[in-house]
Design a protein that fits this description.
111 residues; 22% strand; single chain
Length: 111
Amino acid sequence: QLKLNQIHQLYQCTPNLEHLSVSVPTFAEHAYAPAHLPTLTSLEIRSLCTCEASSVGTFLQSAPNLSRLSVDFSSEIVDGSRWEEIILNHLAQLKRLRLKMRTALPLNVDM
């Protein structure tokens, strides 16, 4: 498990990295400065806690050559129109997307 800002450190040690599978505790790191990941073509990423759509978008913008993306969020839903915007504007090479988002509904809410 890595924090988002540690991915930059990992990439500095492996600048030709093409495939990455990683768990991050959250996508809500306000001090996160995105690294440019131009060689990354395949990414599998899991977040165990809070996701902010803007942070997810910022992170994915740093990997413009992704052709395969697998995302698994355990605690929050990112709006579908936001996903569409991220893909159309920043992931032109994307061929395969696997998206899994889960959230818990409060038990005391009437439906």
